[in-house]
Amino acid sequence: MNKKLFFTAAAIPAALMVPTVAGAVGADTALVTVSGNNKVNETLKASIENLPANSIVNAYQWYYVDGSNDSKNKPISSATSASFTIPVEAAGKAVFVEATTTKGDKYKSEPRTINDLDLSITAPKINSSSNYAVPGELVQVAGAIVTDEAGAKLQSNQITYSYQWFYKVGENATIIEGATSDTYRIPNNALKDGITDIMVRVQAKVGTSFVESDVSDVKTISNEPSDSMIQEIEKLINDNKYNATSLESFQAEVTALEGKYQALSTAAKANVKNYDVLKRAVADVELISKLNEKVDKVNEVNEKDLPKYLKEIDEAYDKLDLLQRSLDLNDALYNSIKNILKDPTDIDEFKEVRRLNQAIVELLKHENSFVTYVPTSIEALQTAVETIEKDIAKLSQTYRATVQNQTILSDAKSDIKKVEQFIKLFDKLSQNDSPSKQVTTAKSIRTAYEKLTYKQLQLVQKNYMHTLLQAENAENSQIERLNKEIDSYVGDVDDSYPIDPSVDSWQGHVNNVNRIINEYKGLTKNSAAKIVGYERIVTLQKDFKAADKIIKDMNAYQKLSETPGVAESKLKTNYTNVLKAYNKLTSLQQSLVYNVNDFLLNTPTISVDVNGKEPADKAAALALKADIDKFANVTKYTFAQFETAVNAATTKYKSLSSAGRKYVTNYYLLTAASKDLSGVKSFHKKVQTAREETDAAKQAKKIQTVETAYAKLPANQQYLAKQQYEDLLNNRLEDGNAPDITTLNNEIASIVSNDTYTVSMERIKVLSTQYNKLSSSDKKRITNAAILTTAVADVKKVESFMKTYEKSFISNPTTVIKAFAKLTSKQMSLVSPEIRQAIIDKDKDQQQSNEIALKLVESINLLLVNGEYIDDLETKVKEIRAAYDNLSASEKSVVKNYSNLTQAENDLKKVAEVHALYVPSTGENAPERKAWQTAYGKLSKKLEILYKKMYPTDL
Description:
Helix content is 53%, strand content 11%. By secondary structure, the chain is of the alpha+beta class. Helix 33 packs across helix 35 and helix 36 (851-861) packs antiparallel against helix 37 (873-885).
């Protein structure tokens, strides 16, 4: 066996392999056989079992037989497999299959004739929404089922339908032009055009075969569904009322009608022109049913929500028109609502209103042109307010609004809240806190306290104020101690500090001063302002540092002088440098140098080397040296004497020879004296400038400059300048306008007492002017400056209030009263007692019960009795209107139910407008009568009853 052929064959699917068959027939015999049913849509299958052995088929083709000549046979498109599904086009035709092998051999089957189609079709039907077809409705063909009598199973996509619609004319029918689809829209004017019966015929085509149906049954065109629905809806209403014997039966009726309507076709629905009546009836039934349910559940509503719930019921019923109310048979729902809304006795309610008005006014008392609460604690005031509010809540909705002065209640609650917030601030205060923290916390509490109004202040218990004062004074003992300590160091000093430091006490003094300064820095601002001499203790701290350096330098010199072998020149230089540094210290600084005497007594020994030749002016030089030694103690000189002596010594020194000058070994003292002389002269110029100033205020500033300069002068210069310095201070110009610091500070402290100002706004302004004239350093001495700052701010607030008072008190006193109530206790005290009393009197007038207005409120409430207007309403409304118009603006504000009066006026107008449309019922005025009926039907129950009272003959 050829291996190549074997492998090739092995790769071919087994279905195409023909096994060796014993006794195979010859090539001229039809070796391909076909099995299957010769019907459309059945499948024929080719079999190649009889082909020669080892034949490999690689292609099939099915053909239509067209005569005896093979060349005329037509291959069937896409029919190229062993199986073949018979298409409808093959009906009545002969087909065969041809198999081709890999060698090119072709084998045919015997032809097979496909059965012809024998089509049949059932009669069509016309589908519509009911037994009738409605103008405008879209009807559709149903039925018209196509089958093959020979048994072929036809598929829907193989059938093509065509349609023709007809309408009957007598016993005949005529085609409807253009009506050739499976649906037909009946014209809206069909009945008008005489089209009352329609039919349809269907034709079907399968391949080349045709079949035509019989004509369908007749479908009658009619408005019958819509007409009957319209008639049934019309029966729902009669004379602008529903034809209802009970709500339940009427609900069942409209529900059934709604179901029938929804079952109609869209076209039929469109013909029901009065459907809105049915739609409203359904909605009205639901509305009345829900309102009945709400009334039935009144007992389930909690007391808090009941007023709102009843109001909703009342308003809902009041919105019903006559048609809707016709479902409230025998006024059952109306009477139920009247019963649950029945007003309490007006007389009793008015007595309660008057009692509550008086109770509210009695919460306040007026003393010394101030208003305070009668209850003296927030707890008592809270109880009183809550009691009154509970009693107000017990009143009917109508009468709650007539309770006057409820702003007093709201103000009281606001005041209680603010006082509670103020008291809560004390939670931050603890005696365990450091004094500075207590003072800081107390300051914030004090700030809040000063913002309270006079009424609020009276509600703060005294124990809180005692706690606040304790906290504010927490630093007092510390302040007193620090002042004593500072005074012991820098008090009453002139040229020296009142301490006598030694090597043993030095560090203790330094530590004490540092501690005092640190404690000062830890004080609050107000407490720090009470410390006297802080600037001087800071100066002492600096002087300690300056003196400490000199002390160390002097000790170093002493140690150097005791060291053997130190050169004479080195000792002299060191001594001179230390002495120069010492001389630069101020008198106060020098008073701290405790080792100065040891230093001065240990002057270095200075040898003069002249190479064995004494100069001729040696004696003069030694005499000059003796004179210069005297400069070491300037206290023996006046400035003039010192100047003369220094100048003379300088001249003498310059006249000496070079060898002679060597004997003036203390020349450094002359140099230092010259510098002191120059420094004092410069200082004298500043003194002279200040002395020549003729303006007292300006001279005071220049003297401050001189004082600062004097404090910085070295000790010798301070002594030499002291005479002119003190002369300047003792003969300064007197400033008649300059305030005395102590007097000003004390007066500022006295402007407040018991949370009220004891002086006028004008005096506060004067004090402010005096304070502003002070220098920066003097302002720091005013420890009560914060009191003045607050007072100035309060003056501005009160001045703003007074503008409001002058502008509005007569025309709009309420605005002034409200503005006055917002002032703090201290601010109120700046308003003159006369003005305060005028405001209080006006406020009391407004708080008094207005009997005329209250009676008017009562009259307005009596216009309605159990939800119905009284008889002769029009006359009563006119009387009330005239009385109301005569009230003042403040009296009118008491009439909280004024809207009820305007409502009654509007209701009278509405009823009159409906009456104006009235015409009696005659055959000639149907439109006018209809207009009146429509307007009357829109009246609420309340207005319907009013109409019957006012125009009984119309009904």
